[in-house]
Design goal:
The chain is an all-alpha fold. It has helices at about 20-30, 30-40, 80-85, 90-100, 115-120, 125-140, 145-150, 160-165, 170-180, 195-200, 205-210, 235-240, 250-280, 300-325, 335-365, 370-390, 395-400, 400-415, 425-435, 435-465, and strands at about 55, 55-60.
Length: about 475
């Protein structure tokens, strides 16, 4: 155990992989089956060491050949057996894996997270206690420096395990860290943010109380109050305090935001009202019964009117709901921001569909062949605001090179911002809304679709006057 924490895991091209059965056992928490696998395979090496290889350069001696599926293997994204057990809160499995391969306690995955980070994010007090016990045993065996480094390790975001627990509000994990390793409160991120500052910044009174609570023997908490740009946790608390009187600039910005939300809600309600009313007074008729090939079928303009009017109504109603939620102070700030972003995307779409419904509705009123000139005029005039009142229509022409670069680099997944399998349908929507395709191309594609429909409607009114 004395040197068990100094050996990292190999992530090179010849890395060992965890077997399918071992993956199943670790994810389901089957401790009995894991014990069977450990008994059948035996210890992989006498010292429990693993070498690491980063970008082809090895920092340790290569391990002896080990069968695929052993505890020293990794998943496709670099997670070890201990990561899987820790992230799912399987304390008994974590203890078994840590006992057989103690070097895994100090390993890092692709995000530079240690198993202690995973336990903190999952809020598993038992797993975190098991990992801390392994670190203390290593320190007692002579590897104190390595144990301290593993305890204070920062991930790719510069956060320690305590930072992650505070950020996610894992009270049980924070309580454990304060009892077993209070020195973690003095470790800051790469930008100088302490756990206490993070707790104050996120308005977590519970986290602040736990971090400032003295130990059982009355020793004051060693928590650092350091923050960004020389600020302290007290600055953060004063900034986010609900009782703080906003400055003149902040009050003006808040009033401006409120006015924008109110005006947006009024506009979306007006579009929804017009679209709803138009649905019950649809003009136009059907193809005459004596028409040989299409007797009794709806004319194209009527179909397009129904489709565009429906889309205008739905987009405006959803945008109205998002604006209401986005203006509610009770909702989390991050949620309100997403509601506002979604509403800002849906409102232009609703306006475009409403303009299209207006043009198709006039076509139905002027269905008489003598009014073909007026039909062309209506469609032409209706296209003007779509082309010149919505600036996002022309943005793709300036970002064509960027779109090609995204396509070459990440394919269609890069354009829709779905690089990994989404965790939920809502997560998929959030990814797509923030994608290059939705932000810069949807508006243009919608205008192209509407313009194409206009052109087809004009052509049919000229070539097939009875259709």
């Amino acid at each position: 155990m004395s040197e068990s924490l100094v050996a990292p895991v190999e992530f090179g091209p010849e890395q060992m992989t965890l077997g399918t059965e071992l993956l199943r056992v670790l994810t389901t928490g089957d401790a009995a089956r894991l014990k069977e696998l450990l008994r059948s395979e035996g210890r992989p090496r006498a010292d429990g060491h693993v070498a690491i290889e980063v970008n082809g350069a090895s920092t340790g001696a290569a391990p002896s050949p080990v069968r695929t599926g052993c505890l020293l293997g990794v998943t496709s994204n670099g997670n070890t057996a201990l990561y899987l057990a820790a992230s799912r809160g399987h304390a008994e499995l974590a203890a078994l894996v840590g006992e057989r391969a103690p070097s895994l306690v100090a390993t890092r995955n692709g995000g530079l997270d240690t198993p202690l980070h995973c336990a903190a994010k999952a809020g598993s007090r038992d797993v975190a206690a098991c990992l801390l016990s392994l670190m203390r045993a290593a320190a007692a065996g002579g590897a104190e420096e390595a144990a301290v480094a593993a305890l204070r390790a920062r991930n790719r975001l510069g956060a320690t395990a305590l930072h992650e627990a505070v950020r996610l509000g894992r009270a049980a994990a924070v309580e454990l860290f304060m009892a077993e390793a209070p020195e973690m409160t003095s470790v800051t991120t790469d930008v100088g943010v302490s756990p206490l500052y993070l707790a104050a910044e996120t308005r977590s009174e519970q986290m602040v109380r736990q971090l400032l609570r003295p130990s059982a023997d009355g020793t004051p908490s060693p928590a650092s109050a350091a923050g960004r740009h020389g600020r302290t946790a007290l600055h953060a608390a004063a900034t986010v305090s609900k009782d703080r009187t906003p400055t003149t600039e902040e009050a003006a910005a808040s009033d401006e935001e409120h006015d924008m939300l109110r005006n947006g809600a009024i506009g979306s309600v007006l579009i929804a009202t017009v679209a709803f009313a138009a649905a019950f007074i649809v003009p136009g008729g059907f193809v005459a019964d004596d028409h040989r090939s299409a007797a009794g079928t709806a004319i194209l303009a009527r179909r397009a009117f129904v489709a565009s009017d429906t889309m205008a109504f739905l987009c405006s109603i959803v945008a109205t709901s998002f604006l209401i939620y986005g203006g509610a102070r009770e909702n989390p700030r991050s949620h309100r921001l997403w509601y506002k972003i979604l509403a800002s995307r849906l409102m232009p779409m609703a306006a475009r569909f409403m303009i299209a419904a207006f043009a198709f509705g006039f076509h139905l009123v002027l269905v008489d062949g003598a009014n073909r000139g007026l039909i062309v005029f209506v469609y032409t005039v209706s296209m003007a605001p779509m082309l010149f009142c919505f600036p996002d229509v022309w943005i793709p022409l300036q970002l064509l090179g960027m779109a090609k670069a995204v396509w070459r680099r990440a394919g269609w997944r890069g354009l829709v911002n779905v690089h990994k399998r989404p965790m939920s349908p809502l997560h998929l929507v959030q990814l797509f809304v923030g994608s290059f395709l939705f932000q810069y191309l949807v508006g243009t594609l919608l205008v192209v679709l509407i313009a194409t429909t206009f052109a087809v409607a004009i052509a049919l009114s000229i070539r097939l006057p009875n259709y």
